[in-house]
Design goal:
Belongs to the PIH1 family. This protein is mainly beta. The chain is about 5% helix and about 30% strand.
Length: about 280
């Protein structure tokens, strides 16, 4: 453990919203040499381990005087040379990584929208303040113990989800039969979670505040190597087809295929999230 003073230098800023409240959020990507550089053993940057320090949220106002939240995500300046243009894949990757770390730090109470990300003509929202932080030494991650494919957590009296069946490698139609009849495409995020050595699992977290025990019987979850469909008739429909050429999947599609045979999922009643590990 070491205590250092960070003097972050502004890089760029993006604007989005909180998925369930539509509150405005500004994310400042900044740099400081005290943040450890990425481990770059692979030429594929999606395989890198990229340290980032995420600030606590602070309140501010936008140009119209409306309230907003601001987060600073501070990286080692060595990544700047990879961010060459506004729409570069690496820049999008860093934005997605920043969003994931903000969501993880909030315990998934703040889930950010990916569909309408804007780049205001500012390097940072507000002044980047000096801060003294303690940087921990890296700790090895242990392989998680085997669990059922899908389990309910956060409610000891809850029944196990009726989604608790082994994911299929052949995609089938969602239970609703008509995606146009559903009313909401739930917000989602993903993270690459190390296990042991070079092994990792892909964790996709879906925000499901309207999911209840009584709706379990009508829900469906289908997993293919490059596609996931989650459906609750008249409530949710989410089709993640990462084989498509879509900016939403630019970082995710660079990873390996989903591990269909070992996939599992957890529904957190308290956090209102369904997390799929594949």
């Amino acid at each position: 453990m070491s205590t250092v003073t960070l003097k972050p230098v502004a890089g760029f800023c993006v604007k989005t919203t909180v998925a369930n409240t539509q509150s405005k959020v500004f994310v400042n990507v900044a740099y400081d040499k005290n943040i450890p550089p990425p481990t770059t053993a692979s030429t594929d940057y999606t395989e890198w381990t990229i340290p980032v320090l995420v600030s606590d949220p602070r309140k501010d106002v936008d140009k119209a005087g409306s309230s907003c939240l601001v987060f600073d995500c501070i990286y080692n300046p060595s990544i700047k040379s990879n961010i060459t243009q506004l729409d570069s894949d690496f820049r999008l990757f860093i934005i997605e990584l920043s969003f994931q770390r903000i969501e993880a730090q909030s315990g998934n109470t703040v889930l950010l929208t990916r569909t309408h990300i804007k780049s205001p003509n500012i390097k940072s929202k507000g002044k980047l303040e000096e801060r003294t932080v303690t940087l921990p030494d890296p700790k090895p991650r242990l392989k998680p113990a085997h669990k059922p494919i899908i389990e309910t957590i956060g409610d000891t009296n809850a029944e196990k989800s009726s989604l608790n069946s082994k994911p299929k490698s052949i995609l089938k139609s969602p239970a609703s039969g008509d995606p146009s009849s559903v009313i909401n495409r739930p917000s989602w995020s993903w993270a690459k979670e190390p296990i042991i050595g070079d092994e990792y699992t892909i964790a996709l977290t879906i925000l499901v505040p309207s999911l209840t025990h009584s709706l379990h019987a009508t829900a469906s979850l289908d997993i293919e190597p490059r596609r996931i469909i989650f459906s609750v008739p008249s409530i949710y429909f989410l089709d993640l087809n990462i084989a498509l050429d879509d900016a939403e999947f630019v970082a995710l599609k660079r990873l390996r295929a989903f591990d269909v045979d070992n996939a599992r999922a957890e529904w957190s009643v308290r956090k209102h999230t369904l997390t799929i590990y594949c």
